[in-house]
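Regression check, adenosine monophosphate case 396:
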Amino acid sequence: MKIMSVNAGSSSLKFQLLRMPEELEIASGIVERIGNNNAEFTLKFNGEKFVSKDLVILDHSVAVDLVINSLIEHKVIETLDEIQGVGHRVVQGGELFKDSVIIDDEVVLKIASLNDLAPLHNPAHIIGINAFRKILPNVVQVAVFDTTFHQTMPAENYLYAVPYEWYEKHGVRKYGAHGTSHQYVSQEAIKRLGNKENSKIIVCHIGNGASITAVLDGKSVDTSMGLTPLEGIPMGTRSGNIDPSIFQLMNKKEGYSLEKTLNELNKSSGYLGVSGVSHDSRDIIAAAEQGNKRAQLALDIQSKRIADYIASYYVLLGGLDALVFTAGIGENSKELRLNVCKRLEVLGIEIDEEKNNSRGDKEISKDTSKVKIWVIPTNEEVMIARDVIRLGNFKK
Ligand code: AMP
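Current build output:
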């Protein structure tokens, strides 16, 4: 059976077509710069990459049409009917969604009611959902939220110590993000632990956006991202945790508005802000190797903060079975993994430098390590497709 996994952004539409239940990618692609007359479409299929440039794609419906037509044109599918389900990634499900859900009009309204919590993402997801519902009206569509995996956090971990009415009236609390990835990776880790009961796992999803989650017996009990993805560890361009008094100081000294400072914390901080070199870890690592001190500092600040979270979650979980690295940097940067793990030796977390140097899905801990350290590639698309199958009630 063929299931489509979709991630719609404000000007982009990413998709992957999967063969389920085998969990194999059939084709994938992205439409970029939707809304412009220089849009670009990339389709990957059968080991080949087809790129179309300078397209006029005025909205997401046109983009979905293009995707579907090109799947037919390239004989990925013969007819529309072959797509039996569509899963949509949605960043913010607030407290309204404790699980993925089959999309109907009411669900779309509920997702829209959370726009204030994810102003850049949720409106874009709705545009994507509506476009797919229009073109595939009889196909089951499922919303899979980045936040639902974290809905199991206890109140003492998700509440901020601010006036309680802020939570009651406006939903001010920690929601977390990357839940689909944390869930997929922790499930893989649990399998590798032989389905051990009460397993204690920390997942480090370190990509351009980055978050860390403590997973107890398969459930998220704490995570580093907060009301928005800005909280937690420093990332490509995000600051991670700061003292909010910085807002007042920057207003006084530079006349920065709330929006301006928030924008700088989201877009000009992290690797980019500290190093002044780039938001991309490959550039930072290369610059640090050539002796750029600020690039090294950007890496060290991030690794130090990641280690802080791991140590704190170690205590929260009451020990640790496995520490897992995933996402672009977690999977590919031996430098990051070494920099983090070296700071954690006191907890019996011992990285094997030789194993760490090799690539791919692997164990990188020493035989003497009390904690397994794994690199497990994430697969949010598979997780989304699994939920389409689970909720879609398909006949076997
Ligand atoms: P993601 O957001 O998960 O796609 O991850 C993007 C990040 O992964 C970027 O900062 C990339 O520089 C980083 N990345 C990808 N490949 C490598 C690599 N081989 N070494 C270090 N970082 C990498």
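Comparison notes: Residues 225 and 276 are 24 Å apart (CA to CA). The chain has two domains: 2-145, 194-380. No diff flagged against the previous build.
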